[in-house]
C-alpha cells in the first residue's frame, strides 16, 4: 500500500524546516517520466547560515555526554521507524527501485544505522594509558570530534547513504551539513523534517542544490573541517583539491568495478541466479554491482547460458508492484548513457539478452531475450 507522497520538500537549517530561496528543481518519477515533486535550492546565504549554525552548535554537541548523543540517535531511529512506509514511498517515487525492496533494505538499513551508531557512541575505544618513559610519564590517547562535516550523498541510495554519513558523524560529536544529490533529494529532505526536533539546532543541516553551486560552496568553505563524499572520481578529485588547500580531512567513496570468480566446481545454476541479482539489484545502479565475471573455461558455456536465463527471468515493471524485480533507471540521461554502453559493447561482443529501452513511459531497459 502506498501513501500520499508530498509534492514539495524543504531544507533543514539550524533546527528549522525552511523553504529554499534559489533555483527550483523538478524531481522526476523515473517510472513515469513525469514530475512528482518540486525542490527549491538553498541560496548562497542559506548555505552560509547552515554552516554557521553547525559551527555554533559544534562546541556544545561535542561536549554532550555519549549517553545523551546515543539517546538522540535512538530517538531519530524511532521517528524514522514510525515513518518507514512514507519514506519507502518517497524513495520509490524518486529513485525508481521496487518499493518492497526499498522498505526492507533502504529504510530498514537507515533505522539500523542510527541504532548501531547510538551504541557506538557509548563504546568508543582507545589505547590504554601506559608508562612509556621513566619518571612516571604517562601517555594516553584522547578522541575528540573533528568539527563540522560536509556530507555529499549519491543518487542511487539517497536515504541509506545519508544515514551512513550522518549517524557516525553525530555519534562522535561532530555537526553535519548534508547535501543530497539534486536528482534524488526527496527522502533526505523528508528525513530532515521528520527528525528536526530530535537534535539541538544546528547539529544537523540539510541543504539542496547543484554540486557546482551548493556543493562547491560547502567543499571550499574554511569553516568545514571534513568532507565525506560518495560520488564520481571527478568530484572526488575536486574535493581533494579543496581539501588540500584548506587542510580538510576527507572520506571518499568513488565507485567500484566489482569482480566475481566462478571456479570449475561451482554450482552454475546457483552462481548464475545469485550473480543476476548481484549485477542487476537497484537496476544495476550500485557501486558494488557484479560487473565483471571470470569463469573457468571448463564451465564457461554452460554458465553464460544460465546467467542469460537468470537475467531474462527478472521481472521489470512498476516499482510499486510487489512482483517487480527491477524498476527503471533513474533518469532519461542515465538511460541514454547505459544504452550507449550497450551499443558500444555490441561491436565486440554478443548480446544474449536484453539491452533495449522499453516502449512507453519511464526509463526502463529490457532484460528479455534478444531476438
Write up this protein.
- There is one protein chain.
- This protein is α/β, with parallel strands linked by helices.
- The chain folds into 2 domains: 8-125 and 141-253, Aldehyde Dehydrogenase, Chain A, domain 1 (3-Layer(aba) Sandwich), CATH 3.40.605; 258-346, Aldehyde Dehydrogenase, Chain A, domain 2.
- It has 11 helices and 14 strands.
- The protein has helices at residues 44-63, 66-82, 84-95, 99-121, 158-171, 186-195, 211-220, 233-246, 268-280, 300-312, 332-346; strands spanning 8-9, 11-13, 16-18, 24-29, 34-40, 130-133, 137-139, 148-152, 175-179, 204-206, 226-230, 249-253, 258-262, 290-295.
- Strands 10-9-8-11-12 form a 5-stranded parallel β-sheet, with helices on both faces. A 3-stranded mixed β-sheet has the order 1-5-4.
- A hairpin with a 2-residue loop joins strand 2 (11-13) and strand 3.
- Helix 1 (44-63) packs across helix 7, helix 3 packs across helix 4 (99-121) and helix 4 (99-121) packs parallel to helix 5 (158-171).
- The longest helix has 23 residues, at 99-121.
- It is globular, with a radius of gyration of 23 Å.
- The chain starts with 7 loop residues before the first strand and ends in a 25-residue tail after the last helix.
